[in-house]
Design a protein that fits this description.
Chains A, B: Residues 19-298 form the Pyruvate carboxyltransferase domain. The structure is a homodimer. Chain A is an alpha/beta fold. Helices cover 38% and strands 19% of the residues of chain A. In chain A, helix 1 (39-52) packs across helix 2 (66-78), helix 1 packs antiparallel against helix 11 and helix 9 (240-249) crosses helix 10 (271-282).
Chain lengths: 554, 554
């Protein structure tokens, strides 16, 4: 039954929460290609997850991974968590060894984590072919390890690996694995779609059937002490979020995922997307009060630490998630933002943005101007000029959508009649030279001649390429008159050759992103070649930076 | 009912296909932040979509967007599609105007597209507040416009905008919009989750209910002439793919989406993911024979043209989609790859990476070599060297996938021990200079010094940019000794800055395409700046051209 609003019965002060938001960013998420988290990184991310209000933070595999042993050891003294508890991840005991004698299991205990999550085979083929043991011994491994850890006072979660594939092959065996874990005292059995190939409808059917046969109450009405089913989805079919929702609808009360959907291959279920859907569309209350409003900030803060570029089109928290382009909508959005957005962006701490492009009309440009601090309400003339200028420029290759700072300067130019004048360029030149044969290095230098602060300045910069050299030369030329420029740093640089059918006779567009450490801005340049386009973007960047640093022309 | 294998009844020769794979990459996809497709780009992408085997290619909004009017006009003479038909997108007539008198509607006809897709309000609030007309007039707009275009001999698809939100608010009105469209002769009504906020379970319920009440047969058994329901999903809840699958399970027979999930905000449903799920997990046959195996190649080729960095974690076609990180799985994968992958990656033309990958790598390289005329069957040494070289080069930024001619030269180099030697470069240099202030033109020249045909040659070329000038200088330098070079023309030139987080310190990759009038070839160059990268691509292009023109070194 689909419920649009279906609040949980309020938890009593002594009852544990009946829905687990379980974060594995630091363990499964860390298996993403290109991610390499240090202990310090993990210790920085954990408080952010805690701030979000997840219930569990799976920190890693102590014992098996030395960095993770360190993490748990340092977490004991350095981490103070308000909302979450730490979970240590590991595996069931080896075949033929007692749990108490298994080094890996003992290391999980030694981590001091109050929760221990064990991955166990729940697909008979994996028990037999990957572990090379019998189905019966595998069940004993589950029973023994869970019982041992429970007796040691830990809360235990059992991750039933390859559960869905295993269930489709031999449902009785997979069910036996689940039952063994609960019988031994596991608090949760999380069903893992380890290969990520499941589709939502079948996930729902299997979870429903499992609950019926094993006798697990619907998570929605779970009492303290009741066994709970969980879901651990991967995105190989593009359905990780939907699979998680399907499991919850079928009675799961524990969802595992990662922030920003980090993870191996196509990633784990994006935990924020799952939680936002459950809170905003199904009225569940899962994070701490006000936690959802922090998701955009926290998702971005975490991506700063992981150094993985944020994905602009990520649901809810992505930079583009509420960015509207088409003229089709812009006039209507002014009147009625709710008609065009599935939720109010501030609920997840995000913003509505209007993109400027040749599809934009006066309405989007007015809105955008307002966003940037310009009130163009009764300035019909300026609006018309700006709208036409944008269309013309875009037809010539400019793109203001990705270059807010250039658009800002365009507005100032149309309003005030001229661009802010900090310096006057006399000339510039770049030379790139490879003085030797194949395999020798090329050198690049640039010379800039300009007037600023009443002086004529000639400077030469070097770099690994003509644009890099030009950037250095421009800074060298401006820094004595405008020392503020030393704080600006070029952090991103994109080149696009437009209308490529003309070969090297095409137009080149350059986008650059600059930061002053606190905020960043983007500028665009267009020209018959890369150097001219880059020069335009570089000078606009300097001018914008100085304007916004409140600097007057000297 | 969940079916694992559920083949469609085979279509008879005269019956139209009963499932529509409808691609809107060039229209809705183009609304993605950062995308700016030229007419040439669209004309390059359309044949790739056709090769994939989609049934419909929505090309844009002729009349409303000048570039799109051009696209349809040029498509008429320049595009030959084998599998798909072109669709022109537009809107229903304006309120209070006859369809035949509406400029925008006439422009759709003028585009000559055999299919016209009209977006219409199907949410009463939008009709009243956004269009500021009455519900009745909006229905008349649908009826009139559809009937008019059908009478003019076009196939009509009606995109019911904001359908699901509208249905939840006033189901009778939204239903009336759907019925009006079918009654007027629309072939398909595509239900649009325009705000992207729907979840799969409710999508399925609504589509099922709509079919029952309106009397639309299950798409699985649709006969020619039966009304078809379609789905157009956006990814704001992270469920676009799942929503599309839910609609199909509930009886829709037409799915709209974009390659690489391009689109506004969080994007449209990723059409390849949807189709791969339907083909591989539900036994449907939707693309042309062998189409699915081309999806990885085509998805990447399209991202080269859009110049939007591919998303590594994209399901099925992403670079990381089948990349297994060492540890938990690696040893098992060696034995039993199927235990750890939800599908065999080659089914979608992708590769498993990180295993005894020599086998997989070597196999594809051997095949590729054979494709190019090199028999490497018993040349294990060469194969190993080439495989390792390709891996190393690609790690440094090369991409041989889009540069067959560079790969050809690599093979020759590994087989023969050296690249073909037509000339020896002594040095080169480029100078770009703007001798005046803002608004004056820059000049670019390049000087090349090389040895060919026993002579030392020094030539200076000019151009509109440093690469253009280098290209001219190289030709000038070679043409006396190798007059064949006069026939080569540079027709395409792409630049990508890799690892852009390093600003102008990143690596630059250049791809160029050259033609001799009969055939064309692509080469790649990589370097710390554009000029060096371009030089490598330019010289490789000349060498390859001369090799294949049968020219001996002079």
């Amino acid at each position: 039954m689909t419920s649009q609003v279906n609040p949980l019965a309020p938890a009593t002060a002594s009852a544990p929460p009946t829905f687990h938001v379980y974060d594995t960013t630091l363990r499964d998420g860390a298996q993403q290609e290109g991610m390499n988290l240090s202990v310090a990184d993990k210790l920085a991310i954990a408080p952010l997850l805690d701030e979000l209000g997840v219930g569990f933070i799976e920190g890693g595999w102590p014992g098996a991974i030395p960095k993770d042993t360190d993490f748990f050891s340092r977490a004991a003294s350095e981490l103070t968590l308000k909302n979450a508890v730490l979970a240590a991840f590991g595996a069931t005991r080896k075949a033929g060894v007692r749990a108490a004698d298994d080094q890996q299991v003992r290391a999980l205990l030694a981590s001091q984590a109050p929760v221990i999550t064990l991955v166990a085979k729940s697909d008979i083929r994996h028990a037999e072919r990957a572990l090379r043991t019998t189905g019966a011994e595998n069940l004993a491994m589950i029973t023994d390890t869970v019982a041992f850890l429970v007796a040691e006072g830990r809360r235990v979660v059992l991750d039933a690996e390859h559960f869905f594939d295993g269930y489709r092959f031999d449902p009785a065996y997979s069910r036996a694995a689940v039952e063994a874990a609960f019988a031994a005292g596991a608090e949760v059995v999380a069903l893992c779609d380890t290969n990520g190939g499941m589709l939502p409808e079948l996930v729902g059917e299997i979870v429903t059937e499992l609950r019926d046969v094993v006798g697990i109450p619907d998570g929605l009405h779970a009492q303290p002490g009741d066994p709970l089913l969980g879901m651990h989805a991967h995105n190989d079919s593009g359905c990780a979020v939907a699979n998680s929702l399907a499991a919850v609808a079928a009675g799961a009360a524990h969802v595992q995922g990662t922030v920003n959907g980090y993870g191996e291959r196509t990633g784990n279920a994006d935990l924020i997307t799952v939680v936002a859907n459950l809170e905003l569309k199904q009225g569940r209350s899962l994070l701490v009060d006000g936690g959802l409003q922090e998701t955009t900030r926290i998702a971005h803060a975490i991506s700063e630490i992981t150094n993985i570029s944020p994905y602009a089109r990520q649901p809810y928290v992505g930079a583009s998630a509420f960015a509207h382009k088409a003229g089709l909508h812009a006039s209507a959005i002014k009147v009625d933002p709710d008609l065009y957005q599935h939720i109010e962006p501030t609920l997840v701490g995000n913003d509505m943005r209007m993109l400027i492009s040749d599809m934009a009309g006066r309405a989007s440009i007015e809105l955008k101007g307002r966003e940037m601090g310009f009130d163009l309400t009764d300035q019909g003339d300026v609006l018309s000029r700006v709208t036409n200028r944008v269309k013309d420029d875009e037809a010539r290759g400019y793109t203001y959508e990705a270059a807010d700072a250039s658009f800002d300067l365009l507005l100032r130019e149309e309003i005030a009649g001229e661009r802010p004048q900090y310096f006057r360029v006399e000339s510039w030149r770049t030379i790139v030279e490879r003085a030797g044969g194949r395999g020798t290095e090329a050198t690049a230098e640039a010379t800039v001649k300009l007037h600023a602060g009443g002086k004529r300045i000639v400077k030469t910069g070097e770099g690994n390429g003509p644009v890099n050299a030009l950037d250095h030369a421009l800074r060298l030329a401006l820094r004595r008159v405008y020392p503020e420029i030393e704080a600006f740093e070029l952090i991103d640089f994109k080149v696009r050759i437009l209308d490529t059918e003309q070969g090297t006779d095409a137009i080149t567009r350059v986008l650059i992103e600059t930061t002053d450490g606190a905020r960043s801005w983007s500028t665009v340049g267009v020209g018959p070649n890369l150097i001219e386009a880059a020069w335009e973007a570089l000078t606009d960047s300097a001018i914008y930076g100085l304007v916004h640093a409140g600097v007057s022309a000297r």
